[in-house]
Amino acid sequence: MTATAQLDIDIATQTVEPSTKSTLRTAIAGVTGYAGAELARLLLSHPRLKNTPPMLLGRAGADASAAPVTLTSLHPQLSHLPHADELTLVPFDFEALAREKIDILFLATPHDEARSWAPVALKHGIRVIDLSAAWRLQEDANRAIYKLTDPDPAIGAALQREAVYGSPELHGPQIKTARLVANPGCYATSIILALAPLVRANVLDLDRGIISDSKSGVSGAGKSPTANTHFMHAADNLSVYAPFGHRHTGEMLEQLSLDNSQFQFTPHLLPIPRGIMSTVYAKLSQPSTTAAVQEIFDTFYADAPMVRVRTSPMLPEIQHVVRSSFCDIGFQLAPDKQRLLVVSCLDNLLKGAASQAVQNMNLMAGFHEADGLQ
Amino acid sequence: MTATAQLDIDIATQTVEPSTKSTLRTAIAGVTGYAGAELARLLLSHPRLKNTPPMLLGRAGADASAAPVTLTSLHPQLSHLPHADELTLVPFDFEALAREKIDILFLATPHDEARSWAPVALKHGIRVIDLSAAWRLQEDANRAIYKLTDPDPAIGAALQREAVYGSPELHGPQIKTARLVANPGCYATSIILALAPLVRANVLDLDRGIISDSKSGVSGAGKSPTANTHFMHAADNLSVYAPFGHRHTGEMLEQLSLDNSQFQFTPHLLPIPRGIMSTVYAKLSQPSTTAAVQEIFDTFYADAPMVRVRTSPMLPEIQHVVRSSFCDIGFQLAPDKQRLLVVSCLDNLLKGAASQAVQNMNLMAGFHEADGLQ
Amino acid sequence: MTATAQLDIDIATQTVEPSTKSTLRTAIAGVTGYAGAELARLLLSHPRLKNTPPMLLGRAGADASAAPVTLTSLHPQLSHLPHADELTLVPFDFEALAREKIDILFLATPHDEARSWAPVALKHGIRVIDLSAAWRLQEDANRAIYKLTDPDPAIGAALQREAVYGSPELHGPQIKTARLVANPGCYATSIILALAPLVRANVLDLDRGIISDSKSGVSGAGKSPTANTHFMHAADNLSVYAPFGHRHTGEMLEQLSLDNSQFQFTPHLLPIPRGIMSTVYAKLSQPSTTAAVQEIFDTFYADAPMVRVRTSPMLPEIQHVVRSSFCDIGFQLAPDKQRLLVVSCLDNLLKGAASQAVQNMNLMAGFHEADGLQ
Amino acid sequence: MTATAQLDIDIATQTVEPSTKSTLRTAIAGVTGYAGAELARLLLSHPRLKNTPPMLLGRAGADASAAPVTLTSLHPQLSHLPHADELTLVPFDFEALAREKIDILFLATPHDEARSWAPVALKHGIRVIDLSAAWRLQEDANRAIYKLTDPDPAIGAALQREAVYGSPELHGPQIKTARLVANPGCYATSIILALAPLVRANVLDLDRGIISDSKSGVSGAGKSPTANTHFMHAADNLSVYAPFGHRHTGEMLEQLSLDNSQFQFTPHLLPIPRGIMSTVYAKLSQPSTTAAVQEIFDTFYADAPMVRVRTSPMLPEIQHVVRSSFCDIGFQLAPDKQRLLVVSCLDNLLKGAASQAVQNMNLMAGFHEADGLQ
């Protein structure tokens, strides 16, 4: 990718009108991974995109004379979807994207590629939904963990300020007109959605500290075979990893306006394919009632079609959300009426990745937020 | 069971000398369950009990003319063990136990049976290791959750005071001479062993609150088929149950001298057969160092053969302990040098039940504490 | 159910015209089980039934004053579907079904209830798709295993002759006009679809014997908690059950025109929630080629939207079909060009139950066969 | 490894006396894998090897100044075993093996290393138990699949003739005096033990064809992370691999004196960590009785401590053998009294690898065959 060489993107143009085109054209870079496969599935079955399957982008500069890689050879389970059998990977090339009049480019690529490519896409007038972490973090200190470099630091900094964190429940209006949406991390989504109503309602004793004990299925670790994703390590096991230092922590702190002393996050690897549960511990500033807390959640998510608030004492289970696009949230208040247990579940590949990306696309395209997600 | 009718147990005699008999005779009531099966396995392969397999007790008053139930028909996987093929269940009868000169009776029975039978066993001069919760709790308020009744309340109260909580790492000397040992709960063991060194060293800020987010495999839910233990519910799932009210909580509070406001325990059902992980969150009263905390754990467990303290930052995983008799403990200190993450793993059927019972038997019999457990 | 008392069903009327009604009304008896839940899900999201959710039938004579049982309390994972939150179980009552102008009644009930109720439904002019085994078998000897009794034997016998085995790939035209469709068993579907093209092409050496070594996930064993469906038995295990005598065998023999000496079926319980694989061994009458066998499969299923024939040597895996409505079929020919390995996979709750029922409904209603199934 | 350069092994000396040394010294090459870990565990807890832990061999020529790799860093679950904490990998070096007076060298290495190293070991007077496939096959055509080359073809051929196939139930007497034992494959063991009694009793209709539909847990695929051993592929799945061409087939054919036209083997990958089930289909030459077939199995294995023959109709399950050293075998005869279903289960890492190797060592050392295996 040297396409960034003469980058003269208009960094003054920070928003666009929601699309009113009759057809929306999409492209996916990174369809080989788990999130990419789910994204392809969702777009292929999206009721508003019936006749416009996404372009699927392979490596830039791939030998055009080689046998084409078909979507269904990568993901045989998709072979029943409309158009799936016709789709093959085409070499990543911004000119081709422009020729095809692509409106929205999904990046399900490594962080550094997403950091380099997003500016080029914007320059070509293509809006970007980035599923990597490249654009999620406003604070340099939080972003440092990803070791990103910008081809043009000034443009990188400007686009970073422009980028919208793609949590529709928190930033819906900004997403509608955004050029660059940073789709949230899977753990981050589960925790932010569990805590945002309480933090915004200002009812928590933040100095007491909030703890999220989170557990994720193995797909969260990606498709590359590693010692940790080997069946023999993951099955019949549970293990903690990256306590005090998981790289999704920065997103949670920024979105919830917390600092490190107020928040602690411990991820665990669950022996299941998909699903995240975050068991969140917090304390109210003063004693309250179950009804009052319920009201906070119900109100906050009254217009959020992809969050299902459960009525206390019901708590969500991972099975309720696997292969769905929902985040389920439930809570219980301790007998002391102050300690609060909030449980949040979602499918890490869907509401934690691909479905949230489609939800963002829906907002950007002027579709209904839940189109293609139920 | 009406044998308690004329109970005149000598409640003044509260301890016995550790056995010096050349052979120890044991019996198990409740061998049909998972913990009972593990107990049978451990006793049959115990190096000090080679020629004295345990008596296996079935229902009192069972029809002696019925076809005998063999151990290996209940648990085919035990059929290779010495004597296993000879063993059949005999009807529970204290006279028979006395005739066979049983020294130690293991009760892996429902709580109320254990509450009724233990006094009768003691009256017959038989020491008891009770795997139920019947005798674990000194405080009436904590015990109330089990709805136990005593045939003779005065004797019940006296024996309750006499009963020793069977945590060898905490009460080893008392266990050696005990007549009645209350084998700890599986969750309780994992949490008490994670916290006891810190609580006894008086280094925790108790008012900040301690949280144990614990996860157990399905065998912890028992052998009876229920909606929750159905494969379709447990597999590929994670669910919270009994937050703020799990009945093992009382054990933890009593053994750690904590009150409810200082401690919170949330159990989860893991989609694995065996194993418990407790992820414990605590805060030191003042900043310390990893080395100092390591020293606390290492010293506390220096002579504890069944606890493996890991060197920070190594944390235990469930796979390290499944089918072993160990409790593995590890920790990490936050960058603020005050927040502490302690992770404790054990096999709920072994160190959480049967192995701990055998460890107690070893102490009571004057054997080496780890005999038959490595 | 005494509604069968004065049964005067017109047994001369054996077929109906495919429906041309603008709206189709459906009802489900037995929505509490796994197949019933999938059926409710499929009907609620069926594009042709958008505004006509199914009636959900509970026990006949249930106390109408009791709190209503909601669909989403039974199956929380369905709560996002349109209309799902409004649906409650209503007492089974044929008058109510008639009043509501139900066109098609799905029976996901025990076999004997399905045997008793189907005639009454037909009498009320309601077509029936029965997911039980009550009406699948034409030969009394094969049906004997279910110990069914008919309220009126003459009517039972007549309806049995009328009933159409609901395999759309084999009996599509008859299904379109059928009043009573017997939805096939899950194992039976996987095996019949693997073998029917070969048997009908008359290329197998039947005397050599055909063997199906089949494996099913635990949902095939039903929702009732039993020793076999307990997580501790099913997980990390594989077991054979009912060799030489599984009750689905009769369906296979009748549909494939084989006798017992020519066919052998061994079911295994797999440690997974859903999915069936049948590994089928057969021998061609004379040596052939991969291309010729491929042609047989491809031709047979050319117009079958719910069967995906793989191109040899590709073989299906269970993951390719789980949560889909497809049956995937692949094969390999031995180096001797005569021995044939056919592998067939489907989701036992979908193509093996609920999806096949909807496929039958589509045919009966004049919809496209695959509506709502992709 | 250039130690084979001047190989002048005495190929006339083909057997040795069973050892009568008071202590046996062993070494393991390849302890990093799953079978190697189990082998280390078995040798460390072997009652006849209490004070002589095995030497653990790492790469030849490894830098002696590098930090030593400890056994317990490779396999934390072994850390409780006697001597485990002292053991580190030492560079592979035949001089060192000789200096340490190693009697038996276990090779759990790649096939080609085992082919090169075994002659050198024998030259140094060290007996070899090879867990790879290097020496299992007498027929060149069967061995070709492994693409082995011999440093000295004449010696390779001579040692191949000398090598004893390490199935104690078939070749016990030869194993006792063997210098080079080729430990069988896991699938091969399960199938050979299921069929050998019937084949030797000459009761099968071989021309009808024998089929083994076999299923293995994921540990059989080795420790290297691959797309197939990734949790996301293996979990909740079942897949066929290598039908008509699995490389273990040659062992089965040779040991059972069958040819390819008489035998067919289809392996499947099960979503469990450990365990193999072979479901074997055969036909008796003429009708017989369950009692007669039972007698054939019971007699054949009367003195085989590591095979448990179940009484028909009981069939083994994988759970009965996981983590045990047994092969369990059961059968059922069809109602036609001729078709036979034989089910064989073992733990692929134990009776299918490490335990069988120890069983062979026991025979070679003059120990009891089952020492350390129960």
TrEMBL record, chains A, B, C, D:
Keywords tagged on the record: Amino-acid biosynthesis, Arginine biosynthesis, Cytoplasm, NADP, Oxidoreductase
Molecular function as annotated in GO: N-acetyl-gamma-glutamyl-phosphate reductase activity; NAD binding; NADP+ binding
Pathway: Amino-acid biosynthesis; L-arginine biosynthesis; N(2)-acetyl-L-ornithine from L-glutamate: step 3/4
Catalytic activity: N-acetyl-L-glutamate 5-semialdehyde + phosphate + NADP(+) = N-acetyl-L-glutamyl 5-phosphate + NADPH + H(+)
EC number from the UniProt entry: 1.2.1.38
Cellular compartment(s): Cytoplasm
Matching InterPro entries: AGPR, AGPR_AS, AGPR_dimerisation_dom, AGPR_type-1, NAD(P)-bd_dom_sf, Semialdehyde_DH_NAD-bd
Any Pfam family matching the protein: Semialdhyde_dhC_1
Residue positions of the active site: C186
Any Gene Ontology CC annotation: cytoplasm
Gene Ontology biological-process entries: L-arginine biosynthetic process
SUPFAM superfamilies, alphabetized: Glyceraldehyde-3-phosphate dehydrogenase-like, C-terminal domain (SSF55347), NAD(P)-binding Rossmann-fold domains (SSF51735)
Domain Semialdehyde dehydrogenase NAD-binding: start-end pairs: 25-178
PROSITE patterns, per database record: ARGC
Annotated PANTHER family: N-ACETYL-GAMMA-GLUTAMYL-PHOSPHATE REDUCTASE, CHLOROPLASTIC-RELATED, N-ACETYL-GAMMA-GLUTAMYL-PHOSPHATE REDUCTASE, CHLOROPLASTIC-RELATED-RELATED
Family that this chain belongs to: Belongs to the NAGSA dehydrogenase family. Type 1 subfamily.
Functional summary from the UniProt entry: Catalyzes the NADPH-dependent reduction of N-acetyl-5-glutamyl phosphate to yield N-acetyl-L-glutamate 5-semialdehyde.
Protein name per its UniProtKB record: N-acetyl-gamma-glutamyl-phosphate reductase
Protein source organism: Bryocella elongata
